[in-house]
Specification:
This protein is of the alpha+beta class and 180 residues long. 43% of the residues lie in helices and 19% in strands. It has one domain.
Length: 180
């Protein structure tokens, strides 16, 4: 009951959300931002650890005297965990929107995501630049220009903000004037 009351109070509140002087009004905040940052940081740190430990492992294991096939298998396995995992994680999470701001005056959105070096990246786009994929994709809710973005529609405090972002408020399936 307490959580229901908290949600009801939050959604019925008339106070404005957090404003950012440059980006506008905060309309969305992703709940997995710290998780994405932590997983990427852990992956990068283990890759760096592998790179520093690789000479020591090769020296102590005597892999240099084994056959070429064993060396290729060993280096391939280490290479997969060292390079492929962080790259794959970055590709999968690069479109995850941490925060989304909306500027009413110019009808523009500012999406904050993480780039490859774990810094926040700013993408500014207009609502008309939003394209919804024809086929639902696993890590894409919409495209802003050509960049794929991932948001969770249930995390928008105001559902009208999500509807405006996706363009659902501009199109209607039934026009009552045509029905009359």
């Amino acid at each position: 009951v307490a959580s229901f009351q908290g949600v009801a109070v939050r959604s019925l509140s008339t106070s404005s959300p957090h404003d950012h002087p440059e980006h506008g009004r905060l309309v969305y905040k992703g709940n997995l931002a710290k998780t994405v940052l932590g997983v990427k940081f852990f992956s990068y740190s283990t890759s760096i650890f592998n790179l520093f430990m690789m000479p020591y492992i090769m020296l102590k294991s005597g892999i240099g005297v084994e056959s070429l096939l064993v060396q290729a298998a060993f280096y391939g396995l280490i290479g997969v965990f060292t390079f492929v995992t962080p790259v794959t994680l970055h590709i999968l999470t690069k479109g995850y929107v941490i925060r989304l701001y909306y500027k009413d005056e110019v009808d523009t959105y500012t999406a904050i995501t993480y780039n490859a070096i774990l810094a926040e990246k700013v993408t500014v786009f207009h609502q008309k630049d939003v394209k919804i994929p024809d086929i639902t994709k696993m890590f894409t809710t919409f495209y802003a220009k050509t960049k794929s973005m991932l948001v969770n529609p249930t995390l928008f405090p105001n559902p009208q903000d999500y509807n405006h972002l996706m363009g659902y408020d501009k199109s209607s399936f039934f026009k009552f004037e045509e029905l009359e």
